[in-house]
Amino acid sequence: MTTVRQRKVGKSTEVAEDQPSEEKNVKSGGKILSGRKLWNILSITVGGIVAISLGLLTSVYVATLHENDLWFSNIKEVEREISFRTECGLYYSYYKQMIQAASIQQGLHGLVYDNKTESVRTINILERMNVYQEVFLSILYRILPIQQYLEPVYFYIYTLFGLQAVYVIALYVTSWLLSGTWLSGLLAACWYITNRVDTTRVEFTIPLRENWALPFFAVQIAAITYLLRTHLQPVQERMTLMAVFVSTFLFSLTWQFNQFMMLIQALALFILDCFDMLPTAKVMWLYIIQISGLLLVCVLQFFNSMILGSLLLSFNASVLITRTIQKNLKKGTLLNRLGKLILHVLLVMWLTFLINKLIKKILHLESDEHIFKFLKAKFGFGATRDFDANLYLCEEAFGLLPLNTFSRLSDTLLFYVYIFVLFLVTVAAVIVAFRNLRTDYNTFFFFCLISDSNQVQFLEETEECTVTLKPDAAYNFIHTVLFGCLAFSTMRMKYLWTSHMCVFASFGLCSTEVWKLILKCIHLYTPQRTHVIKYSIPIITLLYISYKFWPGIMDELSELREFYDPDTVELMNWIKSNTPNTAVFAGSMQLLAGVKLCTGRTLTNHPHYEDKNLRERTKQIYQIYAKRSPEDVYRILRSFGTDYVILEDSICYERRHSRGCRLRDLLDIANGHIMDGLGENEPDLKPSLYPRFCEEIKKNLPSYTIHFTRVFQNKTFHVYKLAKHK
Length: 726
Hints:
The chain is 68% helix and 3% strand.
C-alpha cells in the first residue's frame, strides 16, 4: 500500500511553522483512535452478553420442552430410563453403571472387562464405544458435593442441555467473525432456535453421540474461521491452533462417526488449497491437527482398529506426502498449473486408497465394511441382498432429505436467504479460483502495454470489478456445500448442515462485501448505502421472525404431555422381579438396550453396530422373525447363552415399512426365501420349508413347547424361556 508523507526540508523555520498543525492532527487522530477503541470494546461486550444470553436461553428452552413433553420430573425412574430409546439407553447405562459401582476403579474395570453387553464374550467398552463422556460425567458427579441436591439423571441431561448453550454461542461467534458484526450472530442464533425441528433433536434423543459432539464441532469451525483471518499475531495463531486441536480432539472422542465428518472437512481444505484460496501453511497445520486428534483418541480407545483404518488418516497422510513431492504446485502458466493440479489430485486419491488398503490388510480390519456396502447400494452401484446394508437403506433416517424440510426452512426465510447468499458466494468463488490459476505474468504484461495516461483509469476499473473472497468465508462456503450434499443424501446428517446454514445465511445478510458486490453490479454503490442496508435488512428479518414465530414458541412451551408406555414398563418390572441377575436376554437391538439400562441383565446383541462379529450375531438372533424351524432358532439362541427371548408384535406384524423393507422381508431375502404378501419376488427366491417362527410359536405346538416356554405376555411383548437340554 502506497502512503504519502511530508517532504524533508532544510529550513528549520518551515518545520517550526508546521509543528502546531501536526500536533493538532496527532491529537485529533489520537482521539479518533481512542473513540474507535472504546466503541470496539463496547460492541464486543454487548455482543458477548447477547451471545451468552442466547446460549443460556436455548438451553432452558430445550430443557423445558423435554420436561413438558415427558413430565420427566414426575414419572418413575424406570419410565425415565425407558424414555432413553434405542442406543441412547445403551450409552446412558454405562453412566449409571459407573455411578452405582463401589468405586471409580471398579467402575472402570467393569467397562474394560465387560461381559454383560454381549453374552459369552468379554469386550472393552472404552475401546468399542465412545463413552468417555459418560465416564467423565460419572466421576464428576461422584466427586462433587451435589448428590443431595441433584439426581444423577438430572446431572446428565442438564450437561447435555448446557452443551446446547456452547453450540449456539459457537454458531453466533462464527457468524460474527465472518460478517464483522454481532447482529449476524444474533440472526444465526434466532434462526437456529426457530428452525429447531431441523437443527437439533437433543430434547428427545439426549444421550445420542451427535448431541455431545456437534457443539465441539461448532467450536472447531469457529476456531478455524478465526485462524484463517489475515494479519494474526504469532501468539494469536498459536492459541487458535490450540483451540482447534482441543475442539477436534473432543469432537473425535465423543462420536464414532467423527472420522467421516472430518474427512469431508479435509476435502474442503484440499479443494481450497488446490485453488490457492487458503494459506498453505495453515492448511497443513489443520491436516496435522486432525491426524493428531484422531490418533490421541485411538490411544485412549485402546488402539481402536476402526480409527486406524479410517479414510481420514490415509487421506491426510497422502496429502502431506504429495505436497512434499510437488513443491511447485502453484507456479507456472494456466495450462501448466492445471496439469499439475490434475496430477496432484490423482496422486492423492491413489495414495489414499493404497495406504488404506494396506492398513486394513495388515490389521485385518472389517469394522466399517457395512458402511461402504450401504454407500455402494445407496448410490446405485448394484443391488445387494446384504442384510446390514438393507437394514440401513430401509431406515428413513438414512434416506434422502425429504422435500418438506425446505418448506419448513423457507417459512423462517432461512432457505431463501441461504440460496441467495450461496449463489453470490459461488460466483465469487469461481471467479477467484480462476483468477488464482492464471499466471500473474499475463496481467503484468498487459498492464505494461497500457499508456501512462490510461494506467490510472485501468487501475480504477480493475478495483471496481475486482471480486474477492476472504479465506475464512471461502472455507465456510465449501464447508456448507459439502455438508449440504451429505444432508441431501442422508437425512440423519442434516443437523450438521442446517445449523451451518444459519451461520452462512446470516453472514451473507450482514456482510459488507456481499452488499458491496451487489450494489457495484447495479451501479448504486456508496459506503453509506452499504452500511444502511447491512444493518437494516437483518433487523427487518429479525422483526419478521419474532412477529411470526414468538406466539408459536410460547404455545409450544405451554403444551403439556406425559410419558406413557405401560407395556414396556410392565415388561421391565417383570424382568427385574422374576429373572435372575445373570439371565441372558435375546431380542431386537433397540429393546435390549432398554433391558440393559432398566434391569442390568446380560444381552446377546445391542444397537452399537460398528463391529463385524456383532453384526453377524444380530443377524443370527433376528432369525426369530424369519422362516426357520424351532430347532434351528433354539440352537442359534443357545449358542449365545440365551435364557430368555423377547418377541415383539410390532416387528413380527410390522406395517411401518412397505413390503421389501420390513425386517422380516430383509431376513427372507437374506435367507433366499420368498417374502410374505402380494408383490413380486426375485426369480431365484424360493418358498421356505418352515412357517415364520414369531407367528408359529404362539400356537403352542409340541415342536415349539419342547424348547420354549412362555413366561410373560402383554399386548406388545411375549417372553419365552429356553429349555436347557443336556
